[in-house]
Amino acid sequence: MSQIALELLAALVKSVIIIAGLLGAFAYLTLIERRVLARFQRRVGPNRLGPFGLLQPIADALKMVFKEQIIPTQAKTVVFLLAPTISIFVAITAFGVVPLGDKFGSLPSYWQPALTDINIGVLYILAMSSLAVYGIVLGGWSSGNKYSLLGALRSAAQMVSYEVSIAISLSGVIMLAGTLSMIGIVHQQSSQHIWFILAQPLGFVLYGIAALAEVNRAPFDLPEAEQELTAGYLTEYSGLRWSLYQMSEYINMITTSSVLTTLYFGGWTFFGLENIPGLSILIFIVKVAFFLFIFMWLRATLPRIRYDMLMKLGWQVLMPLSVLNLLVTAYIVAFQQPWWIAGVFGLITLLIAGYAAASKIHPKKANVVTEGVALPTSVRLVKVESTPSPETAAIS
Amino acid sequence: MSPTLIPLSSNDMWILSPEIAMTALALLVLALDFLVKRREIIAFVSVFGLVVPAGLLAWIVSTPNHPVYGFYGMYTIDNYAIFFDFLFLLIGAGVVLASYDFVQRYMRSSGEFYALLLFSLLGAMLMASSRELITIYIALELTSFPLYVMAGMLRKDIPNDAASSVRSTEASLKYVLLGAMSSAVLLYGMALLYGITGSTDLSEIAVALQHGFSGGPNSMVLLVADTFIFAGFGFKISAVPFHMWAPDIYQGAPTPGTLFFSVASKAAGFAALIRVFADGGLLNTGSFYLWGFIAIAAVATMTLGNIVAIAQSDIKRMMAYSSIAQAGYILVGFTAVAYQPSNQTGISGMLVFLAVYVITNIGAFAGIIAFANATGSEQLRDFDGLFRRSPTLAFGMILCLMSLAGIPPLAGALSKIYIFVTAWQEGGLLPWIVIIALINSVISIAYYIGVAYRIFVKNPLREDRLRVSAAISVALAVSVVGIIAATIFFQPLLNFGVSGAQALLK
Amino acid sequence: MSANILAFSAVAALAIASGIGVIAFRNAIYSALSLIVNLLSLALFYLILNGMFIAAAQVLIYAGAIMVLFLFVVTMLSSDKAELQTSDRISWQRLVGVIAGIIFAAAASFLLLVHAQIAPDAAAQGSNNLFTQISAPGSGNTEAFGMALFHGFLFPFEVTSAIIVAAILGAVVLGRRSRAKSED
Fold first, then answer.
1. Residue C152 within a domain
2. Quick one: angle between helices B39-49 and B79-106, nearest 10?
3. What local confidence, expressed as pLDDT, does residue C129 receive?
4. According to the model, what pLDDT value does residue C136 have?
5. Which one, of B271, B397, B287, lies nearest residue B330 by Cα?
């Protein structure tokens, strides 16, 4: 067979494997998440179907398939049907540039377990995940439901706000590596003998937080906040279309974890172990699984943050800090300073920021005591103004 | 792989220092607005801060053999740019002085107004100095963005006009939309030029058009590029048929903003237009079609401007059409330049005319602003008997209007005659255009005299004396003195313009 | 080569169709969606020209950020009565506009296609200036882009920062209006 045909075949095989893998991972992630959350909450979780509940995803899938898929009468049908597809399409395509492992020994490079190695890999992921917002906005708008629309608008504002910090905080890594290619970044880390987390602790934390918001995961899942918005943009979706949204959320999560792994934790490398054929993929999967677990942990631990705080965090905390990180990294790269300067600086900034946050959450003087009743600091008593007199009412 | 890097030198920074000082001044005004309560200080800083860029400019000029080009030839500080830079600094001082009271009274954000004004002037200075299409475009946008905002900054209604703040918002929106469209047209022309020559640098474009372009200087695609670029700048200078925005926006915008549009936007538009056509070698292209097109635009611009101006009842609308007509006269000079590309006198005539127009218009608008501050009206009929209510204001305004009308021996007349004579000497069809321009000048006297008639002869509706504040008095006085000085010292001004033209057409 | 032309034609058709959609839809949201498709097809043009970086930037900035804000505003404004109920005040305006547009398109394409000799070789004749070297075409990759942006075109790039300050200032000034009104 000719070279091109072989490459095409390789690409086809790899994409089939990756898509199947992603869908399978999604199915079992739902199960794992439920089990993990159950553990956090001292429950058992689903364990009835099969050993450890392993058949549960299949049962869920069957249930979803046979559910009625309602299209509300007030919905804009075409967009309503299209929106979940956009979401899942964008989620899967974004994963396309993630390198899963090293080359297999002497096999030609097109069999490397990475679908493609374009020279703008990181930018491609950013571009694709920036499109993810359309699935949500259009779904929310086309549902013809106020809750859905509000959820969609929240999501649009949230994703646009956090995209800025994402791009800026990733630039630190890109400058250190000198390339935008995902594979190139992994190679750079092994040739510089560091994982970029060491040089970019601040960037790592900032990207982690912002990416969490970008994929609408707890504690940033305001678009689907059930107390306020029923289920946000998901309200009118049911059956398979609903599960498409779930699927894209989990796949986005996987992509984010993969980006974290690749950019900050050396991708498929692990102290030379990756040289054993085939092990590099396993190393990568373990690293990704670690971050996925952290995502679940965060979901189990943190309460959903308020909307104005979300915006404040994005624009007033994350963005200035990420610009700071960018400046320091630029200084390191331009003047060829050792990488640990950026690392130490990042750690110190993180400590200061963490201390500031902690002292804000737990102020030293808890003087929110009203009439002998101690209230938690999160409770703010509304000051009720005196009823307006008729004159002032008329003026206003 | 990578091309050799030539680092920027301190010379680049030195010749850019007027612009850097301008940026710093704008940011300083912005910061002062935040820190200082007293508004006079902000206006004071805005006016006297302009001394710094002017001083730097003068320092560069007075240095013998100062560097002319910087930033890989993108930026230049030749005599042409220097002429315009001084003009823009003058505009800045004049507009801030004339606008101070109005801004205090009718706008909430005075500091921002001055900061935006300074940013816009920065863009205008860059437009005059850029020799590269992308830089010119970016400078153009830097000039325009503040204008869009200034058009919408009227917060409180002017007493005699209940809808004026709404109209201000409308003007702003219209300005943004039309400005975006003109930018698109301009960019289309620039893209064609880049497609033909493969460069965005004006001197390289000139070389490529002369030697490398297989289509020859008269090819259709070049003519299309010429036309689009002319149209794009045509919006800025409000040449017919791209003038439609001017009356509505002049009327709707707060009057200091209108003053600024009528001088800064026009001067900057002409600065870049002449630069692109002369430095980019476009004057040598298109032959008959190019100058024919410009001639038609010139004739249409002055004729429409003058005739429609007669029918106006709002003085700002009248001034809008007047400024369109004035652009038409300048385009007569440009026609002469397009007809005979080595025509230095044509370009120097345009420069001098622009300078005189700017000085005069500042005075005329200062009068209008003073009147609006005192009476809250901008209708022509309220000017009746202004002479009896405020003789100094009346004299100042009349002098400016007479200069705009081109009544000898004022500077406006001298510069107009200079342009017309230049065009006449080219021969061919140009004398006919000059004849049309002369007829237009006669028509224009009708409405300028109309205002004079109202001010001097008619009986005032109210007899009270008008109070004119110090700042505007200064602006008006400076303008009047400027006109008289330009009349007396017309030859030095002309020499300055000629040196600018020589820098352009080496 | 023919594959390139095929791809170009397909994307061009998409771009034109979506461009018409922007102005033809009465519902502002569908117009915005058409604009998104149009911007994405522009990104595809860049890809056809091997401009990877600029294509990704196009998607990221236009489709991913600017249009989201468009949609944000449009959905918020017109959730109930999405259809714009505007009637033309001048009834023949639309017809004249269409005819003028067709004439313009025909004339422009005639001039450009028949009379154009757009020769990239003309560029090389220009000069041996460093400036042309740096902005040399055919290098759509990120390094060349960065080189052009931060070296050759550094000056206009820095001027954009002034534009951004002015634009933010303007947005603040105009955006503050509503609150100032309600205080009165």
1. no
2. 170
3. 44
4. 47
5. B271
In contact, B248 and B174? CB cutoff 8 Å: yes
**pLDDT interval class at B355 (50, 70, 90):** very high
- Asked if residue A35 belongs to a domain, the reply is no
Residue-wise pLDDT for A142-194, tens only, equals 887 888 888 888 888 888 888 888 989 888 888 888 888 888 888 888 888 88
Q: At what angle do helices B79-106 and B266-279 cross, to 10 degrees?
A: 160
Q: In this structure, which long-range contacts are made by residues B48-53, counting pairs with CB atoms below 8 Å and at least 24 apart in sequence? A: B49/B25, B50/B25, B50/B89, B50/B92, B50/B93, B52/B21, B52/B24, B52/B25, B53/B17, B53/B18, B53/B19, B53/B21, B53/B22, B53/B25, B53/B85, B53/B89, B53/B125
- pLDDT of A27 over the 50 cut: yes
Q: Are B471 and B101 in contact (CB under 8 A)?
A: yes
pLDDT band of C114, cuts 50, 70, 90: low
What's the length of chain C? 184
Nearest CA to A232 out of A137, A299, A304 is that of: A137
Q: What is the CATH number of the domain that holds C26?
A: 1.20.120.1200
Task: List beta partners, residue A369.
Answer: A374
Query: Are B226 and B290 in contact, with CB atoms under 8 Å apart?
Result: yes
A15: in domain = no
Close Cβ partners of A191 (under 8 Å, ≥ 6 residues apart): none
Q: Does C114 fall in a domain? A: no
Is there a domain that residue A292 lies in? yes
Distance from CA of C172 to the nearest CA of A (A): 16
Number of domains making up chain C: 1
What DSSP designation does B466 have?
P
pLDDT tens column, A291-304: 999 988 888 888 88
Host domain of residue A152: 68-357
Confidence of residue A380 (pLDDT cuts 50, 70, 90): low
Residues of chain A with C-beta less than 8 angstroms from the C-beta of C64 = 126-127, 130-131, 133, 163
Instruction: Check: CB of residue B123 under 8 Å from CB of residue B140.
Output: yes
Q: Given A119, A152, A153, which is nearest C52 (Cβ)?
A: A119
**Are the Cβ atoms of C169 and B197 closer than 8 angstroms?**
no
* Residue C56 to residue A124, Cβ atoms within 8 A: yes
Instruction: Establish if C62 belongs to a structural domain.
Output: yes
Q: Which chains touch C (3 or more CB pairs under 8 A)?
A: A, B
Per-residue DSSP letter, B398: H
Asked if the Cβ–Cβ distance from C118 to B122 is below 8 Å, we say: no
Express each pLDDT in B112-137 by its tens digit. Answer: 889 999 999 999 999 999 988 999 99
ipTM of the complex: 0.87
- Measure the CA–CA gap between B279 and A208, rounded to whole angstroms: 52
pLDDT tens figures, A315-358 = 888 888 999 999 988 888 888 888 888 888 888 888 888 888 88
Q: Which domain holds residue C63?
A: 1-78
In a domain, C174, yes or no: no
pTM (whole model) above 0.90 = no
Position C138 scores a pLDDT of 44
Contacts of C111 in chain B (CB under 8 A): 220-221, 223-224
Rounded to 5°, angle at Cα A32 from A26 and A35: 150
Helical (H) or strand (E) element with A251: helix A239-264
Q: Give the total number of structural domains in chain A.
A: 1
> Does residue B242 contact residue C153 with C-beta atoms inside 8 Å?
no
* Chain B residue with minimum CA distance to C128: B204
Kindly state the percentage of chain B with pLDDT values over 70.
95
**B69: which DSSP letter?**
E
What average pLDDT score do residues B243-267 get? 89
Query: Which of residues 53 through 112 in chain C touch B, CB cutoff 8 A?
Result: 108, 111-112
> For residue A326, is it left (φ>0), alpha (ψ between -120 and 50) or beta?
alpha
Name the DSSP letter for residue B88: H
CA dihedral A145, A150, A153, A154 (to 10 degrees): -150
